[in-house]
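Final report, closing paragraph on structural work. Over the funding period we assembled a curated collection of sequence-structure pairs, and we close with a single example.
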Amino acid sequence: MSVVADAPTGEGAPIGSGPSGPGAHGNQVRSQSRERLLAFTERYALVVLFIATFAFFSFWSKTSGTFPHATNIKNVLGNEAVTGILALAIMIPLVCGEFDFSVGNIAGLTQVLCAGFMARLGMPVVLAILIPIGIGAFIGLANGNTVARIGVNSLIVTLGISSVLLGIVEWYTGGQSIINNISPGLIKFGSGQWFGLPRTIFYLAIVAIVVHYMLEHTPFGRYLYSIGSNRDAARLVGLPVQRYVLLSFMMSGALAGIAGVLLVAYNGTGSPQVGTILDTLQALAAAYLGATAIKPGRFNVLGTMIAIFFLAYTVTGLSLAGVADWINNVFDGGALFLAVLVSTIIGRRRAGTG
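Its predicted structure, as stored:
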């Protein structure tokens, strides 16, 4: 019983202060506790911030009369379904280390084509849906081929394509919305509610589940993450990097095409003012902000969905409070800057590079 008390303590050192004594054990426990607290904070800080922001606008005198009402909540849910799909679209190339700044403009093109095929050509609704989605996938394929096989920087390629698509939309529409002869069945598909919630939110949930399963539970998704983590190592172990990068862009374009069709179904029109680089930036902000939550330092579907609605409800609260319109652009840009900064810091810390 007196082993510790009778043991020599060395050169006047207090008992238990050695590297293997109780003091060292206590330091280790405290260090582990700090690590767990830090990990918890990284994973759920955005969730806590979302809840706090929602509560603030719900009780703030300037917004308490409108913000927490069911109508406002449902409107935001319905409106953000398209942005959510675009965020998932842009996230897939991001996973393997590439940018796709064309997703917003692909959605803009496919929505006017979908509306135009029905209004001007009398095309059956099924073809008017499938052909634009196919066009979106083809644009993504062209982007991916230029990036993966030719080696052009993805930022330059997709920004250039965005400008081209914007011009095509202006030419096709003449700057006017397409509002006549849109299929009532398609409009019904995008409007109305299920279980008291907008239908579009269920479509977003389906797409999110599919993308989550693909990224987290299939070899294809794991290969994409491997390429994004270390492309040279992925190539050395035999992964066909070019093919996977190309496919990521093609999937991004197809999802953007789906978002464009959903725009027609939700709005009942094909508008040249919808589907622009601003939609791309909102999607990019959500993807990077989502990479700071749930699985910090890693692009993930659940974090992206939380980020989408955090940004949407914050902007809605500011708008209901009567702030100037330019505040929304500042907020979106600031959110993108901070999201990239924080996700980069977290990624480097987890990689042990400081």
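Residues 43-346 form a domain with the ABC transporter involved in vitamin B12 uptake, BtuC fold (CATH 1.10.3470). Confidence is low (pLDDT under 50) at residues 1-18. We thank the funder for supporting this effort.
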